[in-house]
Amino acid sequence: EAGVAQSPRYKIIEKRQSVAFWCNPISGHATLYWYQQILGQGPKLLIQFQNNGVVDDSQLPKDRFSAERLKGVDSTLKIQPAKLEDSAVYLCASSSQAGVRYNEQFFGPGTRLTVL
Amino acid sequence: AQSVTQLGSHVSVSEGALVLLRCNYSSSVPPYLFWYVQYPNQGLQLLLKYTSAATLVKGINGFEAEFKKSETSFHLTKPSAHMSDAAEYFCAVSLFGNEKLTFGTGTRLTIIP
């Protein structure tokens, strides 16, 4: 089965510019996550979707970050305007169903963002 | 709230030697615990998980971890290191009913030939 796909793999922008990342989860996976991984730190959850509804966005900087998951499949994460501290790897993950005993999260390769 | 602490941001071991990566957790309720591995320019791959079944958990690539409630620990071990084990390792915790993962800061494992 195909894994979680993300694009682009790398992105370099100037501060105050806008950027968008795309994620295609594993087919049939209802839950989708976006994590931010700053160099030297562990991934931090930004937002969790269950189908096309938001379950948790408590750590999403909503003044500049937005995310959507249209039709409960693909998802886009946007940053507008970008700041230097947004330089990080943005990881997308998906799992088959939330609310049961445990569902493994499968991670994509990530998008490395550099803000200059 | 739950959290994990990984002791040692960098660990070096000789090829063939024991690998020990330390993880301590904090959780108000029985947690689920995980170890993930991340190779350069790749996403995270699940090594093993503890979900309140056996306390000694065996994972892929010869790794295992033991859940010790009295010590709030979930250390990762491998009897004999291989060059291919060089990577970054993350310990993570989640709670039943919400798969949100809280990660530690990671340990970079270097294997010395």
Structure notes:
The complex is a heterodimer of chains A (116) and B (113). Chain A is mainly β and 116 residues long. Chain A contains no helices and 11 strands. Chain B is globular and about 40 Å long. In chain B, strands 2, 4, 5, 9, 10 and 11 form a 6-stranded mixed sheet that branches. A 5-stranded antiparallel sheet of chain B has the order 1-3-8-7-6, with no helix packed on it. The model of chain B has no long low-confidence stretch (mean pLDDT 91). Chains A and B meet through strand 5 and strand 9 of A and strand 5 and strand 10 of B.
Helix content of chain B: under 10%
The dominant shape of chain A is globular
Report the β-strand fraction of chain B as a percent range. Answer: over 45%
| N-to-C span of chain B | 41 Å
Give the proportion of residues in helices of chain A.
under 10%
Percent strand of chain A equals over 45%
Radius of gyration of chain B (CA) equals: 13 Å
Q: Distance between the terminal alpha carbons of chain A, to the nearest Å?
A: 37 Å
Specify Rg of chain A, calculated over alpha carbons: 14 Å
Characterize the largest beta sheet of chain A: strand count, sense, and whether it forms a barrel. Answer: 7 strands, mixed
The number of helical runs of chain B is 0
Number of helices of chain A: 0
Low confidence ranges of chain B: none
Q: Which class of secondary structure composition applies to the elements of chain B?
A: mainly beta
Tell me the greatest interface.
A-B, 26 and 24 residues
Furnish the topology, listing elements before pairings.
The complex is a heterodimer of chains A (116) and B (113).
Chain A: E1 5-7, E2 10-13, E3 19-24, E4 31-37, E5 44-50, E6 53-56, E7 65-68, E8 75-79, E9 88-95, E10 106-107, E11 111-115
Parallel strand pairs in A: 2-11
Antiparallel strand pairs in A: 1-3, 3-8, 4-5, 4-9, 5-6, 7-8, 9-10, 9-11
Chain B: E1 3-7, E2 10-14, E3 19-26, E4 32-38, E5 44-50, E6 56-58, E7 64-68, E8 73-78, E9 87-95, E10 98-103, E11 107-112
Parallel strand pairs in B: 2-11
Antiparallel strand pairs in B: 1-3, 3-8, 4-5, 4-9, 6-7, 7-8, 9-10, 9-11
